[in-house]
Design goal:
Two copies of one chain form a homodimer.
Chain A (H helix, E strand, L loop, with lengths): L15 H10 L3 H14 L2 H12 L2 E2 H8 L3 H13 L3 E6 L2 E6 L3 H13 L2
Helix pairs in contact in A: 4-5
Chain A binds a DNA duplex (30 and 30 nucleotides) through helix 5.
DNA sequence: TAAACATATGAACAAATGCTCATATGTTTA
DNA sequence: TAAACATATGAGCATTTGTTCATATGTTTA
């Protein structure tokens, strides 16, 4: 009896190779964690709204706060998260800091998400 | 003075059209909420692991629990969430319920996420 | 039909999360 | 250099979330 054939419905031991196949293609723990962290960032409507603004233009924190009708602090906290996960990048110009999209994956991921919910 | 030119850093009133452009392309509140809800589902490593198993095969709850070394209850709760968001579908066969991927967006979204974190 | 098996679900609890408030840091200007 | 402006950040609080435990529901079999 294989090591993974513990009590379970009958289907499992008929697919002994399944566990191996799963383990082969399953990313390691670190990547799974990072993946989940990344999608968590997309999992908040405030951050999604920020990204939609950045789809249009590079804007400063103050503009974002005003465009989304939220406090500067709230926006700044969220921008930090977005930046940590490399969804946005920033550039200082005098007193202001301008934020913009970091790369194209952001658009693709959100586009796929929109496609999915519109079926 | 335009209606949105309240106190803010000087950049904003020089881009009066920005707010309009943002508002035009910003999805409505409901879609933003749904989008965030969808990505929240991807934002947990247990659910991501479930999806990776389903990338390989259609499996029953018990097999999932065993493959991921988690309780049947925990898996079942997460499957409910995945199903509510139409990432997986299910089919009963006797005592067992088999789960599989609902559509291709799941693979695309996760693939894009992996690409993003591997730069 | 009773027992066994497979899955689903509600309640509860600890951990994580998003916002607010106060304040710190960084930059420009008077 | 002091004041004003723009942004960042830590603490606190209410809400959300993922798991466990107990148990309910659904299906098959003896």
């Amino acid at each position: 009896m294989a090591i993974n054939d513990v009590e379970c419905c009958e289907t499992f031991h008929t697919h002994e190779h399944l566990l191996n196949q799963v383990n082969e293609n399953m990313p390691d723990e670190d990547e799974l964690y990072d993946l989940a962290e990344l999608f968590k960032v997309f999992g908040d409507s405030t951050r999604i709204r920020i990204l939609f603004v950045l789809f249009e233009a590079e804007v400063c924190v103050c503009d974002l706060a005003q465009a989304l009708n939220m406090t500067q602090s709230a926006i700044s906290h969220q921008l930090k998260l977005l930046k940590q996960n490399k969804l946005v990048k920033s550039r200082r110009e005098g007193k202001s800091v301008f934020y913009s999209l970091a790369d194209g994956h952001v658009r693709t991921i959100i586009a796929q998400g929109r496609e999915h919910i519109e079926e």
